[in-house]
Design goal:
The chain is an alpha/beta fold. Helix content is about 30%, strand content about 20%. It has a nine-stranded mixed sheet with strand order 2-1-11-10-12-13-14-15-16, with helices on both faces. The protein has an eight-stranded mixed sheet with strand order 7-6-5-3-4-8-9-19, sandwiched between helices. Strands 17, 18, 20, 21 and 22 form a five-stranded antiparallel sheet that branches.
Length: about 625
């Protein structure tokens, strides 16, 4: 039995005196990938700045056909940093970034780190109440978002401490020909913003930095908080996860170490969003920290993804299983030459054995000399900390730990380690493990626990086992969660929102299998006495959901019931509802399967009703924590 009995390079020697004695059965099975690495000890910004100074003429990223060099990117980051400083942002302040994958997101993210502030990364398509929670949880007084999301922030502004709303626009980063086409299509959909709106336009914002004559760069330690990402955590309630400079820089070093075929200038198709650990940590920071080239995808569609892969001859692509499922269906990919690919990675959800086989065949048929490599991790470790090695595949496995990362399997919610091959809770440790949950010591203590082996472990709530060669197998989630298109959706949160509606007595939200999204959301509702089970009530509840639930979590249908099935102890038996839906799907005719979901056919009516709704006193997310 292999054990590691020396201090890992990332362990803080000032605070850790015990030797690390955790098992490492993967020794001897990682081939050329080292077990331990040396890590950059500065900030996220300092790491990218050093890379920009090393490769100034290299292209850092492409956006809608426009390339930006490392020299230009660094210049824009520094302009943005000066402007943030002039605006009043100071060391330790949280600034909310609600942007898709676009140049302004990259400039803002690194500029905040440059001046010692903390980037509070949120999904711009979040519902108003969710955005309100994110702003208040982080005490943000400044938000940077797109012009098309202005109305959302204006609607909740009075309920937050917001002072500065900086509005960027996609059109500002486009070439003239593309900009003209954008304004005739997508640009026309953006609601006009009043001329006297209390906002700062991006161009004006970037110019106020001219008044900054003092030293704006602030050095931050590796262990200082740099980023807050949001997740349901390991218990299913929304939490801000504090991630440090070391977390991100360690990940960037590990990604290259586990992909020895990488060379500076290699292209990564960055379709995963910047507000997600996978997108921000792997697709963007790991590339810009090491001289790679990001092809930014602001809004994913299978067709645009396929077009960019072949147009830019991308070397690496990372995505969730639903993305690859969609890719396989595209006729435009039939003659695509994918010989340029060096790495294809899947994460965010479990990749079925059948889908992996289909994808591997697809890659082989299109001249790629590689197979898809599955990874595993949590937002509490930024993203992946485990990956299938390039030389060795085991069916159903999610691979072996990254250098300096540790994984062990324990009896759930204990420190009792289980034998190889026995299923239990997956625990993670390493230099990417979070600092903690923001303003939530109780949940932090439940999730981060130090063991006698000298390591502090992240309790994931996920189930799996490890074989005697250190390969890990993911078996499921011990917490109740729906994974739809790679997004984690927590039924308990949605039920809490539904039950805040005056018409709802009790509700139950489940995930229903879907060939594209993997799972889609359905709600079951028992109405209070006096309310009719009719189309008008259904529309009102769907409109209520649209108002208060993120777009990606919207139910495709709400079914009214007189009562919900119960377990022996009186809890709602959601598994019975799941089984009923699966039976319905199996019994459906082909014609019935092809019918669009109710939420699609009734979209216009739902939107119209939602637009006319007043804000309700929906329980805020922080009350669940």
């Amino acid at each position: 039995m292999e054990k590691f009995e020396e201090k890992a390079a990332w362990v803080n020697t000032e605070t850790a005196s015990d030797p690390v004695t955790a098992k490492m059965p993967w020794i001897g099975h990682t081939e050329d990938i080292p077990l331990h690495l040396d890590y950059f000890d500065g900030s996220i910004y300092e790491g990218v700045k050093a890379c920009a100074e090393k490769y100034p003429a290299n292209v850092a990223f492409d956006f809608m056909g426009v390339p930006t060099t490392y020299r230009k990117m660094l210049m824009e980051i520094q302009r943005c940093a000066k402007s943030l400083k002039t605006l009043g942002v100071r060391e330790g302040d949280h600034v909310t970034i609600a942007l898709p994958n676009c140049p302004q997101a990259i400039y803002s993210f690194y500029a905040l780190n440059c001046i010692g502030a903390i980037a509070n990364m949120v999904h711009p398509l979040s519902a108003e109440k969710e955005l309100e929670f994110y702003l208040n949880a982080s005490n943000s007084i400044t938000v940077i978002t797109l012009d098309q999301f202005y109305n959302k922030f204006e609607a909740i502004r009075q309920n937050t401490k917001l002072v500065n709303v900086v509005l960027a626009s996609i059109k500002d980063e486009l070439s003239k020909p593309v900009r003209a086409g954008y304004m005739l299509t997508e640009g026309r959909k953006i609601q006009k913003i009043p001329k006297d709106a209390p906002v700062i336009r991006w161009d004006a914002f970037m110019n106020i930095g001219k008044a900054c004559f003092w030293n704006y760069e602030i050095h931050k330690d590796a262990n200082d908080t740099a980023v807050v990402l949001y997740s349901g955590g390991t218990t299913g309630t929304t939490k801000g996860i504090e991630l440090t400079n070391r977390n991100f820089n360690s990940l960037a070093t590990q990604i290259i170490a586990t992909n020895p075929m990488f060379r500076p200038g290699d292209r990564m198709l960055a379709a995963m969003p910047v507000f997600h650990g996978f997108g921000l940590g792997v697709c963007i920071h790991s590339m810009l920290f090491n001289g790679g080239r990001c092809v930014l995808v602001p809004r994913f569609t299978p067709k645009s993804y396929a077009k960019l892969i072949t147009k830019y001859r991308c070397n690496f692509m990372a995505g969730v299983p639903t993305l690859y499922e969609a890719l396989l269906r595209l006729h435009s990919m039939e003659k695509a030459d994918l010989s340029c690919l060096k790495g294809v990675f899947s994460g965010g959800d479990s990749l079925s054995i059948e889908l992996k086989k289909k994808l591997d065949k697809f890659l082989y048929d299109h001249s790629a000399a590689i197979q898809v490599r599955e990874g595993y991790g949590t937002t509490e470790t930024v993203t992946a900390c485990c990956l299938t090695p390039p030389h060795m595949f085991k069916e159903g496995s999610i691979g072996v730990p990254f250098p300096d990362c540790f994984i062990k399997i324990v009896k759930p919610d204990t420190d009792e380690e289980l034998p190889y091959g026995e299923e239990g809770e997956i625990l993670l440790a390493g230099p990417t493990a979070m600092k903690g949950y923001m303003n939530n010591e109780e949940e932090t203590a439940k999730t981060l626990r130090k063991h006698a082996d000298g390591l502090t472990w992240v309790y994931t709530g996920d189930l799996g086992y490890m074989d005697d060669e250190g390969f890990v197998y993911f078996k499921g989630r011990s917490k109740r969660m729906i994974v739809s298109s790679g997004y984690n959706i927590y039924p308990a949160q949605m039920e809490n929102i539904l039950e805040s509606n005056e018409m709802v007595q009790i509700s139950c939200v489940i995930g229903v299998p879907d060939s594209y999204k993997m799972q889609k959301v359905k709600a079951f509702v028992v109405l209070k006495e006096g309310y009719e089970k009719n189309e008008d009530t259904w529309l009102k509840l769907m409109a209520f959901c649209k108002k208060h639930i993120a777009k990606y979590a919207m139910p495709y249908d709400i079914e009214f019931r007189d009562e919900l099935p119960k377990t022996l102890v009186g809890k709602v038996a959601y598994r019975i509802l799941e089984e009923e839906e699966i039976k319905k799907m199996q019994a459906a005719t082909e014609e019935e399967k092809q019918k669009p979901d109710a939420a699609v056919t009734m979209k216009e009516k739902i939107d119209e009703m939602a637009d006319g709704m007043e804000d309700d006193d929906v329980p805020k997310m922080e009350e669940e924590i």
